Amino acid sequence: MSSRSGFFRPVGRSRGEGEASWISVSDLMAGLMMVFLCIAVAMMRSVMIEREKIRTIAMSYKENQLAIYETLQREFAADLPRWGATIDRDTLTVAFNNSDAMFDTGEATLSASYQVVFEEFFPRYMNVLAPFKASIESVRIEGHTSSGWGQSSDRNTTYFNNLRLSQDRARSVLRYVYTLAEVTTHHAWMMRNVAAVGYSSSRPIYNGDGSENIEQSKRVAFRVITNSETKIHSILEESF
């Protein structure tokens, strides 16, 4: 009996040690699961916070966009028809669509009649934007052309000729409005935030039937770019 008792005693000890070991592993796994759960909850909370920040910026962007648009409308609605101009709500663009009256064909010198128009428009435009400067990334004076260039049928030549012309016209307008005495107080801000950009024929205006509207495609536009996109990029960079 003593030998049998001795035979089973090690087995009993081995089982006890195994059970103790199994319990320890179970506790370890449970602990790890709790750690992972806490990390997952923390990450989800962080994502929700960042998403709320972006949502807040998006709502602020919409409100700011609407405020700028409505202020532009109040200031210029009565003048737009005689200037041949329009205001786009979605892009905050004031477009002067009578390019043939602004410039001679193929030229970039601003006509006397539109010097008068921009003398009237631009100082008021800067005053309209003044309360919103903190939320404005830039103002682009954009030159646009139609897709044609004289009798040329070479697409590449036409594009680059129009690119040069649209850039020259945008710079010509910027140079002129910058010299106006009424905007002297805005010069420092303009140097940092106002740019002249030529788009050639890359952004034509189309008629209802899908054909190009030649006259409206040839235009000079003043477009406000807000800094909401910059703020969203900043939030995303902080998150990673």
From TrEMBL:
Pfam family, one: OmpA
Source organism superkingdom: Bacteria
Keywords assigned: Membrane, Transmembrane, Transmembrane helix
Keyword Membrane: yes
Transmembrane segments: 20-43
Keyword Transmembrane helix assigned: yes
Ranges for domain OmpA-like: 90-228
PANTHER family noted in UniProt: LIPOPROTEIN YIAD-RELATED, STATOR ELEMENT OF FLAGELLAR MOTOR COMPLEX
Protein name, as recorded: OmpA family protein
